């Protein structure tokens, strides 16, 4: 498996890279495309052991995601010292906490003149992105959070007890954080590709600091709003899509986070037959879910998404079946009874490998409806 950087050349879009100074260190930023007036920018942040290329290139290089990025500029941010070719951070440099990393985002957005974003992030990046949205809700229109863990306990101790047949070094613990046991045991090419990147694509000294920061995180300060409950409960004000593969090591923590979210603004997408990195394992289906999510925010008319329609048709899903699925979805909304609406929102939407149905994703002021 090769992580190629084809995204730039396909549409020959403008790409700018820049280090932005913040009180918590320099962050490496890559802007692809030109931000459009009255439209948010897709804003990404990566997980530990990765940078924006190794984390998101498999998704953004996919033709279905490229169809989406025709409509939006993209801003990738790499955590301090995690970008390709980064030198050692200065001696005595105090690596920012997860909370401090989230406070670099408003500075970056102001630097590039960006007024609002749709966040897309993974693992540690999802934790940071969610904190950013909690503290700066006016800057965030929506969040796609993959493998988010809102708990405070670290994964290093867990990994040291769960790993079998691996030397318990930092790369192996990151591999166990990113991938399921089945993937580690069976998908040797995928694991070898990411192990090589972790060892050779990221500055090892800087990586240790980032891992230590993530492993020292506090529990995220969020609480599910309950009628008659705490009127000061903190919750994300934007629509959010939580994504996890059904065999991911993050399944339990994502479901736990979902239980703390506002059910009227949150959807949990559990992707069937999918491992730890949905953007690598099933980029087409993740791109489709992102498309529906963005449409729920009021952008991108369905008529403009011709490539996604064609790709779904060629994969065995006909346009007529899509329309039937959509029709059933809307008719089912009118039949949802009180018992269904009060059901726990931890129910997940599962995508089957041969039948991609249209999920009902929460838009502004839209309650979640089971499909």
UniProtKB/TrEMBL annotation:
Superkingdom of this protein's organism: Eukaryota
Pfam family, one: Ndr
Its job: Contributes to the regulation of the Wnt signaling pathway. Down-regulates CTNNB1-mediated transcriptional activation of target genes. May be involved in neuron differentiation.
Name of this protein: Protein NDRG2
Residue ranges, compositional bias (Low complexity): 312-331
Keywords: Cytoplasm, Developmental protein, Differentiation, Neurogenesis, Wnt signaling pathway
Record localization: Cytoplasm
SUPFAM superfamilies (alphabetical): alpha/beta-Hydrolases (SSF53474)
Chain residue ranges for the region called Disordered: 312-371
PANTHER family for the chain: N-MYC DOWNSTREAM REGULATED (PTHR11034)
UniProt record similarity statement: Belongs to the NDRG family.
Gene Ontology CC, one term: cytoplasm
Gene Ontology biological-process annotations: cell differentiation; nervous system development; Wnt signaling pathway
């Amino acid at each position: 498996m090769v992580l190629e950087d084809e995204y730039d050349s396909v549409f020959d879009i403008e790409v700018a890279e820049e280090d932005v100074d913040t009180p918590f260190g320099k962050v490496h930023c890559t802007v692809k495309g030109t931000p459009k007036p009255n439209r948010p920018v897709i804003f990404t942040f990566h997980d530990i052991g990765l940078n924006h290329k190794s984390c998101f290139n498999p998704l953004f290089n996919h033709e279905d995601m490229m169809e989406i990025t025709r409509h939006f500029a993209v801003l990738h941010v790499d955590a301090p010292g995690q970008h390709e070719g980064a030198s050692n951070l200065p001696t005595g440099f105090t690596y920012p906490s997860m909370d401090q990393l989230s406070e670099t985002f408003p500075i970056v957005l102001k630097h590039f003149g960006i007024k609002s974003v749709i966040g897309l992030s993974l693992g540690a990046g999802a934790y940071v992105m969610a904190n950013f949205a909690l503290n700066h809700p006016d800057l965030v229109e929506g969040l796609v959070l993959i493998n988010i863990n809102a708990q405070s306990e670290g994964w290093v101790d867990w990994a040291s007890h769960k790993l079998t047949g691996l030397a318990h070094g930092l790369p192996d613990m990151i591999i166990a954080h990113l991938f399921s046991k089945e993937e580690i045991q069976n998908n040797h090419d995928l694991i070898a590709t990411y192990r090589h990147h972790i060892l050779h694509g990221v500055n090892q000294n800087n990586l240790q600091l980032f891992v230590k920061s993530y492993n020292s995180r506090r529990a995220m300060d969020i609480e599910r709003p309950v009628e008659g409950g705490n009127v000061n409960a903190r919750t994300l004000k934007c629509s959010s899509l939580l994504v996890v593969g059904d065999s991911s090591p993050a399944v339990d923590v994502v479901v736990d986070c979902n239980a703390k979210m506002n059910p009227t603004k949150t959807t949990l997408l559990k992707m069937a037959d999918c491992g730890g990195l949905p953007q690598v394992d099933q980029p087409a289906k993740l791109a489709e879910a992102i498309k529906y999510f963005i449409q729920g925010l009021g952008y991108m008319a369905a008529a403009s998404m011709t490539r996604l329609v064609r790709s779904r048709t060629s994969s065995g899903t006909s346009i007529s079946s899509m329309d039937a699925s959509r029709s059933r979805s809307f008719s089912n909304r009118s039949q949802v009874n009180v018992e269904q609406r009060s059901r726990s929102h931890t129910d997940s939407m599962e995508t089957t490998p041969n039948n991609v149905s249209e999920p009902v994703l929460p838009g502004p002021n839209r309650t979640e409806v089971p499909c």
